[in-house]
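Long-time lurker. I teach an intro course on protein structure, and each term I like to show students one example going from raw sequence to a predicted 3D structure in token notation. This year I'd like something fresh instead of my usual example. Would anyone be willing to generate the tokens for the chain below so I can use it in lecture? Attribution to the forum is fine with me.
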Amino acid sequence: MKKIIAVSLLMLIGFNVSANDNAKRLIELVIKEDVSVFRNGGKSNISDEISVAKASQLISEYENNQYKYEKTYNGKLINIKTVASGVKTDLSGDPYIVANGKNQFEYVSLELKNKNDAMNINKGSKLDLICVGTKNNVMFPTLKNCVTADSYFQKYVETTMETINNLKEDDKPASTIEAFYFGLVKFDVQHPNLLDKYKTASEFFKSKNVIDEIAKIVRESLTEENKITPMPKP
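-- Reply from a regular --
Happy to contribute to a lecture. Here you go:
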């Protein structure tokens, strides 16, 4: 009897590890799919955390109501897609990128997190940056700590998966991503091997019955406090 119990415990431990790994594999696919949807202009979880704007839009909002602009964007993440009108230096000798609006007399100032990145940017360069808004503006909007969207979202995936990997079985989810991860683990325990067949996020999301059941599990653990998608600062 003791041998049977011991074997059963080992099987249970091994199965839970398998379910945990399966959940990690799928949650990474889901995170990357969410990034792809956001970057292609679709509605994603990230859309609630990062504003997407053109230079002309920011300039217009700033000119119409500077107070409202600064309340909206100060300390917030902004994905700006624009074309560099030039690279200039400030009084300290640090470079900043100029992105013009409708004419050469209005612009957004883009301050890079890594100043040396300015060496690779020229007039006419297409830019896809993640920056932080600030209330420290002068005549036109200034965005700080700008990094390429590619490097930012690589960091986002890596840091999110690092958090997932460090979760313990009895931890409480602190975000929608973590709640979804725990939902996947629970579903995989209840339905052994069913999730194995999904190799892409698209395949996974097409399985309505599976998604509905996992969503039900996730909703049970969601609160007003953890309905968030934490995004790293650039």
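Some talking points for your students: The radius of gyration is 23 Å. The beta strands are 50-53, 77-83, 86-89, 95-100, 107-112, 126-133, 142-148.
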